[in-house]
């Protein structure tokens, strides 16, 4: 990854947040075309012991956002500007070597599909103790002890025995738990979970979320990428809604879902089906998310927006603060319509 | 935790606007151009300059081979005893003559004809055999598959040069013998590939959807599976053609090629080495054209491979 | 909706399906009895590996039952062979989970919709095309885009094309296997609205398979809950959701995370 034109020096923002992302921009290089702007000026904070939901549909840039922060982008991507403050350091200006020390040690990661994220040729023991040993956190016997404890903590029965198995010998739900154990074994301050429950059944989803609640209670900050508003409401304190690479609304999760201000958030709620809500008419958002190479001018949502009758909707929409904790990128949001 | 799957969020494969999915909103916008799998493969092939130039060069080679009697100044067997072993640039013989006074240019052109007939013939044969056997084995499964694949494995284990020697011994030194010898050496890997492709494609939902619509077995195999299996097959075939050209030359070099005086590049190179010091041009012309055509066909193969690269095909 | 005099269109009678794997036999479906009356939508919910997708394929006759039988309009599917079975398939169609995977990649959108008509020799070449365009219009795909290929459409549009294709043969039974689970929330809502509208307008009988309880509650008249290859509970939708009897159903419902307060 290349980092270009980074303004130096810079100071950490004056918030006491665990992670502060400021004006993050990420683009993908293309053959014979302008770079494709995939993340466009995204800012958010993650507090200690709190969870932030990043909500959005596929192509909204939510995964690329966290991968930019983690510096885990493919070679064709770059982050021309933005900051990501973590423990007083800007992750985006660290060397790859320093970044490797932070990943896995201070920041844990959980992905949607454990089967793909775990190394199929290594036992759980090897994979769980790898970070502890590699970062020199502890010695071999203590690493093993901590790994067993981590497996027990995530609710894997008989951790002493299970630690010797390979990932494929576990069921999907167990594998997902093992991956969480792997992310947690170094006791990172921040956990990034990218759709961690999308591939598992509802009953397992509930168990995994309850497990993550326990971590949060112990002070871990969590970023949870999800398209499931129920998961966001259940687990996350704060939420940002992304559309076409930008944050369109941010608010405490319950407020966001109870009184959505941005038409897209309203549309997501109108589109979601939930048990007991069968009498409520489905109100799908027409059309599909925009192709980023042909982003609509102005507000990217206006071609699908039921309320876009004013010419102002075809202008760029800045995030407008609504009260202390909320903001929405729609000029109508202020009036609460 | 070392490996990170590519981000699912964004498509970075450099797709052109025409390939982007259409959104459902604009009902009145002009529709993008319809691009099926073949059209998209051609689009991608065209973007590779080297492959495109190589393809044009190969097409030229085919034309020259087809029109050899019109283009070649002399018949390949015509001897000019007054001008034996004359060098490049001699009057009447641009590329010189060999020890019998035969025109090198004409013989190289006819050698091209031999090489291409053998290579394309052999690959066509290999392709047909591979398709029939691989498709049948892959689609039918069970005993039929076991039997066919056992046969294929036996053929695979058989040394191909040995087989070629046997073929030539049985059928004599003819173009047909060479086509069969090289073709049979080639179909085995192709058949395995077809079978593997068919087995993969059989798992796709569209095959099941086809059955659910009421399509019969042959319809599914030929109309649904085959067209989607053919891309990778085309890739191996385009690499097999230069290999077959080389094999033809190799057999010629070993004296197993076509019956003289019909020219073969292998035989010409072999003769040329005998007069290497006295008449280096005898070796140079056929060797240069041989090398160039191998390179061009291989570059076309590269282009075909990139064109059928499954990246960006899955949506 | 428990009008017992209504004619049963498809009836699975104590069906089981056992797959042989290198690790031993796996019983995907164990003794399931289920019927779908005309004009009715039966939802099948269950978690992954509960056998619900296998049940869908048994009902469609795409896989033979290990034991038991499936009666479609009183004909035992296992006794119908070859051409007769293919003709019977006209009357039952299936929507798959992965729309891109279920469309022929080398056929244009309209050619995909024409294909079932062609297979069954319905209409002339031009009337087939006209009908296919009409069907695409029904599901909300503009004629402008009819000649594009599946990769040129978004996932939601692909699923619309797949639905248009299933409607081409005017089936009596539509089996939907997780038709929206690979789609985004906003697109899922579009497809659900479309399916609900088609059901009503065409009077389709439907088997709707999903792991998503909310989706099933919205579309189904009756629900069967599957776990480990068995139907653990079956009944009218309201009854299953409001007063679940089986502990497993209760567990499933209690794990649901509400979106609205």
From TrEMBL, chain A:
Domain of life according to the entry: Bacteria
Membrane topology note:
Peripheral membrane protein
Q: Where is the ABC transporter domain?
A: 24-269
Q: Per the UniProt entry, what are the Gene Ontology biological process annotations, in alphabetical order?
A: peptide transport
Keywords from the UniProt entry: ATP-binding, Cell inner membrane, Cell membrane, Membrane, Nucleotide-binding, Translocase, Transport
List the InterPro entries hit by this protein, alphabetically. Answer: AAA+_ATPase, ABC_Ni/Peptide_Import, ABC_transporter-like_ATP-bd, ABC_transporter-like_CS, Oligopep_ABC_C, P-loop_NTPase
Localization annotation: Cell membrane
Q: A GO CC term?
A: plasma membrane
Q: Name one GO molecular function term.
A: ATP binding
Q: Which family does it belong to?
A: Belongs to the ABC transporter superfamily.
What name has this protein been given in UniProt?
A: ABC transporter ATP-binding protein
TrEMBL record, chain C:
- InterPro entries referenced in this protein's UniProt entry, alphabetically: AAA+_ATPase, ABC_transp_ATP-bind, ABC_transporter-like_ATP-bd, ABC_transporter-like_CS, P-loop_NTPase, PhnK
The GO annotation for biological process reads: transmembrane transport
Matching Pfam families: ABC_tran
Q: Where is the ABC transporter domain?
A: 10-253
**Domain of life assignment:** Bacteria
Q: What is this protein called?
A: ABC transporter ATP-binding protein
User: What GO molecular functions are on record for this protein?
Assistant: ATP binding; ATP hydrolysis activity
Per the record, the similarity remark reads: Belongs to the ABC transporter superfamily.
Cited CDD domains: ABC_NikE_OppD_transporters
Keywords from UniProt, A to Z, are:
ATP-binding, Nucleotide-binding, Transport
